[in-house]
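Lab notebook: predicted structure, single chain.

Context: the supervisor wants predicted structures on file for every construct in the current expression panel, including those that have not yet been purified. This is the next one on the list. No modifications to the sequence; it matches the entry in the shared construct table.
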Amino acid sequence: ASTTKMIEKQFIEAKKKEFVIKEFIRKELGVGKISDIELERTPLGERIIIHSAKPGLIIGRRGEIIQKITSVVKEAFQLENPQVEILEVKEPEFDAHFIAEQIALSLERFGPLRFKAVAYRVLQRIIEAGALGAELRLSGRLPSERARSWRFAFGLLKKTGALSETVVNKAYATAQTKPGSVGIKVFIVPPTADIYEIREKEINKEILMEEVEDGGKEGKVEGVKEKKKLKKK
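Prediction complete. Output recorded below exactly as produced.
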């Protein structure tokens, strides 16, 4: 029993360290540049794989940014031989992590007053890329003295059950704006998802929005109340 507890403790500590390293790298590189980070332990040392739709911004001229990250991570976390690699995200419009970071970056840069325009532009890009469905949920002072939540969506989404875990790309991010923090949730069903009921009907590409309560109902976009169509500006 003691051996089992020791193994569990070591596993938990390793996961905590992995989380801290990932957050450290995200902070060092800045918002909007990273989709995902993987850590692998190999006989030659720790392998850190950074997925990004903008690899040039991470690599830097002559690779100086990568060299700096490698050096800082090695010293800060006592890693013996860290190897940092960059993998390009080929289809960023279907990558929920990248989309969430881009929304956060836009809200921080232009302010939360423009959240509707930001959400519409992002969903339009996802639609044009061919996704089967997507949903953005923004929560915070948008704009109001009280916290509010807004939902923007199109197509069909699987929010529960096994399919939600296998075909829906999900991500979360936070934008730090002057009025306060804005929570961002992104759900995307890529065109490669094999869902029978979606394949058998035409996808509704109309972008809909609604103000919702936290924990409000989710599911098919067609089922929401008080639909409001966003007009393209």
